[in-house]
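User: I need a structural model of C2C2 Zn finger from Natranaeroarchaeum sulfidigenes for a docking pre-check later this week. Nothing fancy, just the predicted structure tokens so I can convert them on my end. Input:
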Amino acid sequence: MSMLGRMVGTLRTARNHDLFCECRQCGTTLDPTDLTCPACGSSDLVTYEI
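Assistant: Understood. Predicted structure tokens for C2C2 Zn finger:
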């Protein structure tokens, strides 16, 4: 595979990721757009890019 082919493959892979968001206080899974946890009201949220 050419160098350009490897670079394009790497860029495509880098864009294919999932976001997993949860509340650090109670562990509720959240939508990435949430600013506070609907279950406990905490704003201590974490987002993981997988």
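Before docking, keep this in mind: The mean pLDDT is 81.
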